[in-house]
Amino acid sequence: MSLQKKRPNVPDPELLEKLFRTAFKIRVFETEGIKLYRQGLIRGYFHPYLGQEGIATGVCAALREGDYIASTHRGHGHCIAWGADVKRMVAELLQKETGYCRGYGGSMHIADIHNGNLGANGIVGAGTPLGVGAALAAQIKGSDAVTVTFSTDGASNNGTFLESLNLAAIWNLAFVLVIENNRYAVSTRIEESTRDADLYKRGLSIGVESHQVDGNDPLAVYELTKEAVRKCREGKGPILIEAKTFRHMGHHVNDPGKYMPADELAYYKERDPVDRARNALTEMSGIEQSKIEAIEDEIRKEFEDAVEFSKASREITMAEFEEFAADY
Predict the structure, then answer these.
(1) What are the angstrom distances between the C-alpha of 69 and each of 34, 59, 178, 290?
(2) N or C: which end of the chain has fewer CB atoms below 10 A?
(3) Cα–Cα distance between 154 and 142 in angstroms, integer?
(4) Which residue from 134, 113, 153 is spatially nearest to 237, judged by alpha carbons?
(5) What number is the average pLDDT over the span 182-201?
(6) Contact call for residues 216 and 276 (beta carbons, < 8 A)
(7) Of 61-70, 101-110, 266-275, which gets the smallest average pLDDT?
(8) What would the 3-class secondary structure string for 108-169 be?
(9) Local confidence band at 328 (pLDDT 50, 70, 90 cut-offs)
(10) 230 against 45, higher pLDDT
């Protein structure tokens, strides 16, 4: 499938602003989050979503209340695009009781089950069967809710990938599987792990409607996902979407990413999803630069307030953690 899609109409200015706000909010969360990590305030791993913001932004904008998402280890962007409270997000990263999981989950396990976020997941590919389970539950209940699972190019080689997608196909579930193909599974390049790097074809092999999209174009991702979601609500699911993208740094904050070719990284940075969301808003809506700057200042202030809120929140004690862990 082509990475490009002709747009017959000018998009709604409110949609364009929403896409920009979301993409920029994810960018601020990740860049400022790295600073918190460097200050020693975040323990454990931190996997930035830098460079991939267009995917979560476009996908989640096409969903509605009552739908579900399942995430990956690189899940901050998915949570924010789904509407997560930045204060509770930061608090979770700082292991504070006011976080989404009271500080027990941290960066890789943020979840908000009551609002349809089935959670980030440190196990590669584990979100796919969870998403299929949620989609099956919705079908049994007679709901038209759609479930989206964000997966990765590395996870596409996991057995649960095709097993889960095949079940979704057999049962005609309202399920959208989004492969965020950033070309690297940690440091393993996609061409080194599969003969055909066009991963959307894996869905075609088992009779699943499958597409490929430029993951650095939030509007293109939104338009394709919106159509996929519509079909799923009509009982024509599941649908597979491969979103081509590239992360702006190594696998996690302490990975220098020297295995990533400089020219390839430069190519994708020139097609930065946040810049493209900003440009789309400017060019298609005629919004003034002062309004853009006001939006950016508002989002930066939101993060600053979240950091202050989190620093002032209580951290769980070791005794509380041991008691919690004993139950599992």
Answers:
(1) 25, 10, 10, 34
(2) C
(3) 33
(4) 134
(5) 96
(6) yes
(7) 101-110
(8) HHCCEHHHCECCCCCCCCCHHHHHHHHHHHHHHCCCCCCEEEEEECCHHHCHHHHHHHHHHH
(9) low
(10) 230
Burial 280-306 (b: 16+ CB within 10 A, else e): bbbebbebeeeebeebbeebeeebeeb
Instruction: Work out the angle at residue 54's Cα, subtended by the Cα atoms of residues 49 and 56, and round it to the nearest 5 degrees.
Output: 70
CB 175 within 8 A of CB 149: yes
What's the sign of the alpha-carbon dihedral 168, 205, 185, 33? negative
Rounded to whole angstroms, how far apart are CA atoms 220 and 321?
A: 44
pLDDT higher than 60, residue 1: no
Q: Measured between alpha carbons, how far is 102 from 94 in angstroms, rounded to an integer?
A: 10
- What pTM did the predictor assign? 0.94
Q: Is the pLDDT of residue 226 over 90?
A: yes
Nearest to 78 by CA among 64, 94, 57: 57
Helical H segments across the chain, by residue range: 13-38, 53-61, 76-81, 86-93, 127-140, 159-170, 201-204, 218-233, 262-269, 273-285, 289-312, 318-326
Residue ranges per structural domain of the chain:
13-326
What pairing do the DSSP bridges indicate for beta strands 188-189 and 184-185? antiparallel
For domain 13-326, give its CATH number from 3.40.50.970, 3.40.630.30, 3.40.30.10, 3.40.630.10: 3.40.50.970
pLDDT at 317: 84
Identify residue 223 by its one-letter amino acid code: E
Mean of the per-residue pLDDT values for the chain? 94
Question: Using 50, 70 and 90 to split pLDDT, how confident is the model at 146?
Answer: very high
Q: What single-letter DSSP state applies at residue 317?
A: P
